[in-house]
Task: inverse folding
């Protein structure tokens, strides 16, 4: 089975459309979203509509959490908070109810899917943990494989018995050892901050072949950045895409 894992679309319709087209072209059996569907980008309603139309399930991201629990807005910096307040005015009541229904985690094919950090954190950044802390997380993790987003970067962390290792990811294949546990950070569809350019990123997990392929997809960045500025989002949201 091939499972497409997408994360951090952040209201970027142009990147999401191109990623879906790439998924359809290479072929997949199932897809899952790791949250942060909205925030930063100019088309939150359209992105949610498309995600739902394609029947792609999602866990809750920290940006969704801030919309359904407004007290959590204080956790964000000024630009992110302003983006969320504008996003809130752009989505429908039905969309807000749907966002409220998103779970913190999902499990299928013996893999855990969570936005921030296993076992169920929506807000913690996996890369802020020490190796000792990661070892504890892995020891308590029931699944061999966990997919996360949140940082907008591409990374893999492995754990074999007692040793934590960090692996740099880029476009291409990352082979998995069936005797090793992994946490895979799949990057961002809508606002990548990795070392591999400004293309949209997502992962394609081959469950039978025990490999993860990072896909890098070009899209119309200029159109997205112009909409961000025109609609009054903080300009940093546009500059980060370039």
Result:
């Amino acid at each position: 089975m091939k499972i497409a894992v997408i994360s951090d679309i952040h209201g970027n319709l142009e990147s999401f459309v191109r990623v879906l087209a790439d998924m359809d072209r290479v072929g997949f059996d199932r897809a899952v979203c790791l949250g942060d569907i909205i925030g930063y980008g100019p088309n939150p309603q359209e992105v949610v509509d498309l995600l739902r139309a394609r029947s792609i399930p999602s866990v809750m991201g920290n940006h969704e959490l801030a919309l359904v629990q407004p007290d959590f807005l204080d956790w964000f910096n000024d630009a992110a908070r302003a983006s969320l307040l504008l996003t809130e005015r752009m989505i429908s009541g039905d969309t807000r109810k749907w966002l409220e229904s998103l779970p913190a985690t999902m499990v299928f094919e013996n893999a855990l899917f969570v936005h921030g950090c296993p076992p169920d954190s929506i807000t913690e950044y996996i890369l802020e943990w020490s190796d000792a802390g990661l070892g504890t997380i892995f020891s308590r993790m029931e699944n061999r494989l966990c997919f996360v987003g949140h940082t907008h970067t591409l990374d893999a962390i492995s754990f074999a018995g007692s040793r934590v290792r960090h692996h740099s990811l880029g476009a291409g294949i990352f082979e998995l050892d069936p005797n090793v546990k992994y946490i895979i950070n799949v990057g961002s569809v809508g606002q990548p901050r990795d070392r591999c350019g400004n293309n949209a990123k997502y992962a394609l997990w081959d469950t039978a072949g025990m490999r993860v392929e990072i896909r890098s997809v070009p899209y119309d960045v200029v159109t997205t950045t112009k909409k961000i500025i025109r609609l009054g989002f903080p300009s940093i949201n546009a500059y980060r895409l370039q």
Helices lie at 13-26, 44-53, 62-68, 78-90, 93-100, 131-140, 221-230, 235-239. The first strand starts at residue 2 and ends at 6. The two ends are 34 Å apart (CA to CA). DSSP finds eight helices and eleven strands in the chain.
